[in-house]
Structure prediction request, 766 residues.
Amino acid sequence: MVGGVLLAGLASLLMIVAIAMAMAYPNLPDVSELSDYRPKLPLRVFSAEGTLIGEFGEERRHLTPIKDIPKVMKDAVLAIEDARFYQHGGVDYIGVARAALANLGQIKSQGASTITMQVARNVYLSSEKTYTRKIYEILLTFKMEHLLSKDQILEIYMNQIFLGNRAYGFAAASEAYFGKQLKDISVAEAAMLAGLPKAPSAYNPISNPKRAKTRQLYIIQRMLENGFITPEQAELATQEVVKIRSSADSAQVHAEYFTETVRQLIYAQYGDSTYTRGLNVYTTLRAADQIAAYQALRRGIMNYERRQVYRGPEKFVSMPQDAQGTEDVIDEALLEHPDNGDVLSAVVLEANPKMIKAIRQNGDIVEITGEGLKPAQSGLSDKAPSNIKIRRGAVIRIVQTPKSTWEITQLPEVEGAFVAIDPRTGAIRALVGGFDFEKNKFNHVTQAWRQPGSSFKPFIYSAALENGVTPATIVNDGPLFFSAGVTGGQPWEPKNYDGKFEGPMSLRRGLALSKNMVSIRVLQVVGAQHAQDWVTRFGFDAEKHPAYLTMALGAGSVTPMQMATAYSVFANGGYRVNPWIVSSITDQKGRVLAQTPVPVLDESVRAIDARNAFVMDSLLQEVARSGTAASAQAKLKRPDLFGKTGTTNDSMDAWFAGFQPSLAAVTWIGYDTPRKLGSRETGGGLSLPVWIEFMAQALKNVPVAELPVPEGVVNIDGEWFFNEYTKSTGIATLGLDGGGKAVDSQQVIPMPVADEKKKILDLFKN
Prediction:
């Protein structure tokens, strides 16, 4: 009798389930759209060589057809998730029954979902564990198995599933965790990725390496048991040390400022679909150049920071007596103060004037002694104020030296910018908009308007060449003074950087030594209004460079991008180029949506005559050979380097702008809120070393360039002249006393502009 009751109960239950399924089936979503699976795909940005340099979108995903997913990855997933996937009809009935019993007993389910069931849940349903949801899941599974092939279902699963670190799908996860394409992974790596679907956070190899390793070993064993790998392969995979991509190098090329610029451009064209339609943007950036630029600028800034007063630890934390409490406090403090690239954070355990012992977030304990203590000596003194005193519980910054020792440091307050451009096309090859994108997203390359100082002088000299001035022209490096009556404002007595005057010298020597008095007198000859018009040929804004004599010293406003574009005119023989960054845009299937034709240099974009550019190149080559940038040619050991240092009043901005004919690059260093960098800090000492370090990498294997001599110039006794000015050897040099009277004159040739003295006086009155 009892058996009959049980059978009746079972029949009733089956009938209820059947009715429920019949009622639910018409309400199921249409799964036919999965036959043309189109998940949300992020915007992906690539370098010119095809290196992934940035991704934008809520979901990092790289849609990979099943035929392109390596067998080892499929085998690892099947071994742990659904070994009989290709044999069953979508539902593991024994597993479902086991899960139901576990739920009835209020025991955590062991999980019996097949891959098809997981796809049904991930795409259409929530993960809530109810009987209603389970019924819908089973029905959807049947529907999918009927409409889709097994390969289609597996393809969806391997592209759709969340695997932590914002990665969706195994292709994205391979890049996120290993920094490599899915097609290149090993058995050991595939097993580690296959462990993520169960619990992406718990088995994350970056944050939980021990648990990830345990899970990986279990999956390798499952692969062996299911015949997917041989015992020899299993042994090798077990022994393999998997190299995990750390959070510090999660963006190895470090092109954050560049990719953000790309994102803004693409969003302006495609709107919100930018982040979901799987656009691939190929850019002009060269990965190797970008890495070199990033490292050079950061090293230059940190070298400057080493010379600054120690400002003290970033925070002080109270260290409990018990070990667990101490560990928790340290973890929390270092989460609030994460590593910044190679500038690492640590908490001090012990400190005295001769040694600092500190602990890193990964548990490593480092000792800093000797030279490594120098940058923070003031914080180790017994008399140090409490806010800078380095003591137990202090959160500090450390860096590893080239000798593998440790040195204490601090995050810089100063900022910087670097941009490199191909002067032949305008293609941007490297762009670093600041020290750290997470710390300061302001792009100093394109947004920072700063005084260029002496790096602006070449554009004044270029104008002068068209006014009868030659490199051999003699100009007086003598004192100048302009009274308030002349200027219409404050008296002005310009000085050279070193405060010295050297008397008459050639224009070539004046630029090489960056003599301010020479530049002012050259501008007097050119005329400030004419010079203002002339500099617009290089891409500068006239209103940013008022027509006053101070323009000769770079008192206007420029951006580093403008400077790179302007110097490109000298580098390419006189043509104006516009900077650009996007080469092509494709959809997720590789179809080209847009393509940028490479610009051609022709007379329609000529800014200055070829002979003007050639003579200016000769002058800028001298700067890099014997002038304020002489270390450029000395260290790089090649003659085809050209450029100009720039240091503004009170050393608030440090510049170097220069080029090799195939690459123009500009470095700027300064504070966001302008303040003195230091009385001894100059463009030659601060920014030039960054430029040299970059060029040492960027110009490897680039042959030395020889500039062709254009028509209209002639060389006489080793100096270049425009044909019509071959008899000119100098210009009149005017100095003005307080009342505007000429107080010195070196009449060598007639003034090329009539009544220049009157023009200068009128200029100040205006």
Remarks:
- Residues 106-110, 732-766 have pLDDT under 50 and may be disordered.
- The CA atoms of residues 575 and 606 lie 4 Å apart.
- The radius of gyration is 34 Å.
